[in-house]
Design goal:
Structural class: mainly alpha
Helix content: over 70%
Largest sheet: none
Strand content: under 5%
Oligomer: single chain
Order of helices and strands: HHHHHHHHHHHHHH
Radius of gyration: 43 Å
Length: 415
């Protein structure tokens, strides 16, 4: 009888690839039950155990692509050790950046002060430009004026200081003789041998070492102050020359839809800072001029130098005028009691006039900040950066108040 079993190539229920031998052994094994053909029994190691027909087959070897030690665990990147290591690296990086900022604090202060001075001098430069001068010539004239001002200040301060120092040194022997003639000193020397100990301290070199160390330290302070002043002048010159390009570059960081408004606000802030610097300098010049006039009439020695001290200390908000008044009054008391009391009365009266008449009129158009905010800002600035912080605090507070008034409050009103 002929074989009636259909050939694999004639079975319509098999895939075409299986009919033509295109599947592997494992794939054919999976296809056969669907086609009604019994699956061939496993043999060898793949055969199930006779005693446990319902048990699962053993896992494949690692060579066959299996996992002989069970399912894989969590990736190493999610482990607690690597997470802690990454967190520690982040903390160390933050600590290193903080230490770098603290170490470079003096440089940052110089940069901030130079930028502040450049912004304050920029209105003068722009005023000279409106008169027809080029920006380079205007910057040169302004910078030359600043150098001349510092030179005149040094010429007015250095000669009186050097003269007073030489007078004190020449008067030291007389002070020593007066001390030796004092009965109390004689009694203390008899009881504790003070003069012998002082003589031994001088002859053994202790005084010389202390004086040498003091001279070296004073020289280092003077050299550092000279270097800082020179660096400040150079940075101010660079900032003043490149201020327009800096403004344009910063505006590029702002989205194009907001550049017009941001530029207007930036110009207003810079104008306010320039007005504050100019107004503060004007108030200091008025204080110095009136102090020089009074001290000259009162017959005080070194009237010009004392007036310059008043003008410089008057630049410091809140306490500057008081510090200058105390210093000048103390010098007046050293000359005569009458002059000292006259200086104290003059500065008390002048500070009231400056606080309630001169300052409000000069600063009314440049810094629009409430008096309480001014005091708080100056206190915080002084606590953070000392005198420099007190100088920068008021224009910074004015800038923050402008941003709040022009950006925050309208946005809150719309919401």
């Amino acid at each position: 009888m002929p074989d009636t079993t259909p050939d694999a190539t004639q079975r319509p229920d098999l895939p075409r690839s299986a009919a033509h031998g295109g599947l592997g052994a494992a794939e054919v094994t999976d296809v056969l039950p669907a086609a009604g053909i019994p699956r061939p029994a496993p043999s060898g190691e793949d055969a199930p155990s006779r005693s446990g027909a319902g048990t699962a087959a053993p896992a494949k070897d690692a060579a066959d692509g299996g996992a002989p030690y069970g399912e894989p665990g969590k990736p190493f990147a999610r482990g607690p050790f690597l997470w802690g290591f990454t967190a520690a690296l982040g903390v160390l990086t933050a600590w290193g950046l903080a230490q770098a900022l603290i170490s470079s604090r003096s440089v940052i202060v110089l940069i901030v002060v130079a930028a502040f001075l450049a912004v304050g001098l920029n209105p003068v430069v722009e005023g000279l430009q409106r008169w027809g001068l080029g920006r380079r010539w205007a910057i040169s004239i302004v910078f030359l004026g600043v150098i001349v001002m510092f030179g005149l200040f040094g010429l007015a301060i250095v000669p009186p200081v050097s003269e007073q120092t030489s007078d004190f040194i020449s008067a030291v022997p007389g002070y020593v003789q007066e001390l030796l003639a004092n009965p109390t000193i004689k009694q203390l020397d008899a009881d504790y041998e003070i003069l012998a100990k002082v003589q031994d301290y001088i002859t053994n070199g202790g005084l010389g070492a202390a004086v040498a160390g003091g001279i070296v330290g004073a020289g280092a302070v003077v050299l550092d102050a000279f270097f800082s002043g020179f660096t400040l002048l150079v940075l101010t010159l660079y900032f003043l020359a490149s201020l327009p390009s800096i403004k344009d570059y910063l505006l590029r960081l702002v989205p194009a839809t907001r550049r017009t408004r941001t530029a207007a606000m930036g110009d207003e802030i810079l104008t306010g800072i320039g007005g504050y610097v100019a107004g503060n300098v004007l108030i200091s010049v008025i204080a110095g001029a009136l102090s020089w006039l009074f001290l000259s009439i009162a017959g005080a020695r070194y009237a010009l130098a004392l007036a310059l001290v008043v003008a410089v200390t008057d630049l410091i908000p809140l306490v500057g005028a008081t510090v200058g008044a105390v210093l000048v009054s103390a010098v007046g008391f050293l000359q005569s009691m009458t002059l000292g009391f006259a200086c104290a009365i003059f500065f008390i009266v002048y500070q009231q006039i400056e606080n309630y008449v001169i300052y409000p009129r000069v600063m009314r158009r440049s810094v629009d900040v409430a008096p309480a905010v001014t005091v708080i800002a100056a206190l915080f600035g002084g606590a953070l950066l000392g005198v420099v912080g007190a100088l920068l605090a008021i224009p910074v507070a004015a800038a923050v108040a402008l941003i709040v008034r022009e950006v925050v409050l309208p946005r809150q009103a719309r919401v």
